[in-house]
Amino acid sequence: MRRHLLLFIIFALMLPSFAVLLVSGIGILQHEWAIRSVARSYVQEMAENVASRVATSEPLGWGMELSMLGIHGFRVFTWGPSIPGWVAVLHADGRLLFSSPGANIAAVWRPNIPIGRAVEIKDKDGDLYTLAVYPVRGGERFVIAAVAWEQLLGPLARGGMLWSVLIVIMAICILLALWALWRWLIRPLRRLVAELEVLSWGRDLPGVSDPRAVGEIGSLREVLYKLASAAVERTHLRNRYVNDIVRIQEGEKSRIARELHDGPLQNITAMIQQVRLSRMSRDENTVKERLLLAEETAHLVVRELREMCDELSPPWIDLGLEQAMTELSERLARHYNINIVMEIDDSLDLDREKLLSLFRIFQEGVSNAVRHGKAKEMRVHIFRKADAIFFEMADDGTGFDTRFNYESLRVEGHRGLANMLERMTLVGGKLEVISQKGEGTLIRCILPNIPSEEGECGNSVPILEGGIPQGNHHETENYRSRR
Rounded to the nearest 10 degrees, what angle do helices 215-262 and 284-312 cross at? Predict the structure, then answer.
């Protein structure tokens, strides 16, 4: 039913109009038949009555006939009303014996007119007459009765003709409306449907406009074009994002390979060389010395490999929030030569996934503060407020302009803040960045305090559109006061 709903609506709209046309057409035809029947009956009776009167007046002579058919107007009966139309009496040889006023025999007379019944005849001007010929007793004379439709039923006939013209105009208007509906509504809709059926969403774009369609379909096309453009843009961003991930993974692999080559691998090569030299030496003291160097090198390799493992997967995360973050802050302080002051609510605890997200954000924040902000000190505060857990990092660096879009940063290769936001999004959190040039930077992570066994929040905490949200003036003042 829904598939043919449009056709059903069109049919429902057009059916009353066609019904009116049909009923009107039938009415006009019946009206014309009624006029024809009235006119025929009228002239037949008039011709028959006049023929009878002429026959009965023969004993009185022609003067009586002329007085009856004289200048005072023809009357069939002396007491009857005036009769529209005219009558005439012809001799069998075609001579006119007498006629009523206004008779125009030449306009309607035909040699082959049937006798005894009414017929329709048009004169040279196109006016329609109904004519009847009746013989007078004896057959030497004939009575001709005629009436013009205009004279007998003129207004009614004109009304019927006018109605016919109106019906034709109405039919033309309906056909024009159907044509316009098909041209500017149905065909554009069908083109749009056909275009969308073959459209590859996220890769192709539909036509932005259709000049042959109504405005509503044009607006629909514009909306679809915007949606398709957004889908194409998201596809491009996703492809770039995947490429970024692959590039970062490959870069991380290259870094690990380089560190393995420059560190443990070189030390292992040196250790092998010491063992080989000890085997070649005959002096026992030399052998012990070389084996001792090999042992020291092996310890160095183990320490370097353990540090690499700790960097890839920190084991102290299992110690809990306070111990893990304290251990990380000490390592980052030594590595980046920055003073880190840590304040942690000892009653807080997080599951491993959320703690790992804060762990990586902390690493990225300290790295950015030192490398880009030239920070010398950072204050870290982890606390509970209402139904959320807050993680704040405030540094004394140079700060930066926060009016940016994290998607643009990702595309341009600056993935630090974008990675922070993505990690917060994955655990259902929210990231806020408050910074001004020359005023340092405050990074705030807000996590919903929901146990992990109840399910992660996903995107339950809204992330403001347009990238990383900026703090308001009140938050900025609080941040400055804490500094």
Answer: 170
One-letter amino acid identity for 483? Answer: R
Name the amino acid, one letter, at 459: N
One DSSP character per residue, 388-452 reads EEEEEEEE-S--------HHHHHHHT--HHHHHHHHHHHTT-EEEEEE-TTS-EEEEEEEE---G
Q: What are phi and psi of 378, to 5 degrees?
A: -140, 135
Joined together, the tokens standing for residue 256 give 């690990």
Residue 70 has pLDDT above 80, yes or no: no
Band (pLDDT 50/70/90 cuts) for residue 469 is: very low
- Name residues whose C-beta falls within 8 Å of residue 404's C-beta, 6 or more positions apart in sequence: 467, 468
Q: Residues 317, 321, 324, 325: is their CA dihedral positive or negative?
A: positive
pTM: 0.45
**How many other CB atoms sit within 10 Å of the CB of residue 418?**
22
Local structure of residue 3 (DSSP, 8 states): G
Q: Mean pLDDT across the stretch 201-212?
A: 81
397, 407, 445, 465 from 404: Cα distances, Å: 19, 9, 18, 11
Least confident range of 3-17, 151-165, 243-257, 421-435: 151-165
Handedness of CA 382, 384, 385, 390 (dihedral sign): positive
The DSSP result for 55-85, as a single string, is: HHTGGG-HHHHHHHTSTT---SSTTSPPPSS
Residue 84 burial class via C-beta count within 10 angstroms: exposed 0-12, middle 13-18, buried 19 and up: middle
The CA distance from 32 to 38, in Å, is 10
Other CB atoms within a 10 A radius of the CB of residue 369 amount to 26
Q: Say which amino acid occupies 361.
A: I
Among 48-52, 61-65, 351-355, 375-379, which is the least confidently predicted range? 61-65
Q: Which residues pair with 430 in a beta bridge?
A: 446
Residues in the chain: 483
The pLDDT tens digits of the residues spanning 426-439 come to 888 999 999 888 88
Q: From CA 22, how far away is CA 16, in angstroms rounded?
A: 10
State phi, psi for 382 to the nearest 5 degrees.
-120, 120
Rounded to whole angstroms, how far apart are CA atoms 421 and 364? Answer: 12
Token representation of residue 155: 């207004």
Q: Rounded to an integer, what distance in angstroms lies between the CA atom of residue 112 and that of residue 123?
A: 15
Measured CA to CA, the distance from residue 440 to residue 443 in angstroms comes to 10
What is the tens place of the pLDDT at every residue in 272-285? 888 888 888 878 88
**For residues 361 and 391, is the Cβ–Cβ distance under 8 A?**
yes
Distance CA 40, CA 34 (A): 10
